[in-house]
Amino acid sequence: MEGSTARITMVLIGPGVLCVFGIAFLWAWAIERRRHYLLLLATAPVLFAFGVMIQVFQRPPGMVENALISALFYTTAVLLLAEGVLRRSGKSFGMTAGLAMLAAIMAGLWYFAVIVPDVLVRIYIQNFGYGAILLFAALRLGALRHGKWADRVLFWVMLVFAVQFFLRTVLTIGLRTPDSTEAFAVSIFWAALHLSLAVLGAAFATAILAAALSDIIEDLRRERDVDTLTGVLNRRGFEGRARALLAQGSGEPHSLILCDLDYFKQINDRYGHAAGDRVLNGFGGLLRHNARADDLFGRIGGEEFAILLRDTALSEAIGFAERLRLELSALEFPFLPSGGRVTASFGVAAAEPGDSLEQLLARADRRLYLAKTSGRNRTLALEVLDVASGR
């Protein structure tokens, strides 16, 4: 009796641990409800725990009924787990494929439980089926191995977790099953199954949770650092990333552009702040359209923007600023009179060795001030007093 109780307790440790992770995933979803895949990940361990309890406590008592009902819980849990991890990366098995895999596994188990009873075949169908589902999902997520640290850990742990279903089954059950239920309960296969569930299952759940939390933290950081009106970085976000870029000291040239929308206060005063907001949003769209993926650009003041061009010489930065100036002056804002045109002034400076962000901003700001005081709608850089004029 004591030995039986000890075995049951050991068997329930794994599902108990996974249920704790289920609660953690539910908590993560409560923080960030847009991430619906967290609900799938919260449900999977609970279903798996139900499957274990059905088998351990023999409810229902019939061997065939018990095996099929517990297998239904197990298989659904594995499919939800794989689907949840896939959806995190914008992928999916799809409902049709998921139901087809569930039906295929359950049909095979039913056939070898009712038509041609064979416990060994059922063990292989379940374990190889679950391994195949997880392995296929891991291979579809192969790009994660080149991603951030949480993604890389998740990919490799998932791959190991999938492969162990094949290796563990072959090594611990072989080609012969125990002769009785009692012998099966104390077999190496049963012990290895629940040990792998407790250890590798917990490692897999930890990797998924770490990846999900890193996503949430990254989103919070992005929301903190992005200007909601224009969709570009705010001052805090721009300065933090710009300092990090300048501190790298790659030896490649970097250039900074400061831009100020001309007569913007008059737009706000005459046509209202809603009109001014639409102008700011329009210019933010121009920045997002023209900047390269590794350039930094942000709104650092009311109508002032900064663009840090990576690996870009001063002459190229001047050309970039000119393209922006011309595109903005050609952009129509129909809610404004006189053709709805808006112009901007630009100051450009090249980063020098050892420059701090403050020093670079100060040089660009002096050129921007000169552009504003010498007529506006122009780009000025370093010793070049009039690169372009709007006249």
Provide a descriptive summary of the structure in words.
By secondary structure, the chain is α+β, with helices and mostly antiparallel strands. The chain has two domains: 2-225; 235-388, Reverse transcriptase/Diguanylate cyclase domain (Alpha-Beta Plaits, 2-Layer Sandwich). It has 13 helices and six strands. The chain has helices at residues 2-31, 37-56, 63-88, 95-115, 119-140, 149-173, 181-185, 188-225, 235-247, 264-271, 273-290, 314-330, 357-373; strands at residues 255-261, 296-299, 304-309, 344-350, 379-381, 384-388. Helix 3 runs antiparallel to helix 4 (95-115) and helix 5 (119-140) runs antiparallel to helix 6. The longest helix is centred in the middle third of the chain and has 38 residues, at 188-225. The chain is elongated, with a radius of gyration of 31 Å. It starts with a helix and ends with a strand. The model is unreliable at 383-391 (pLDDT under 50).
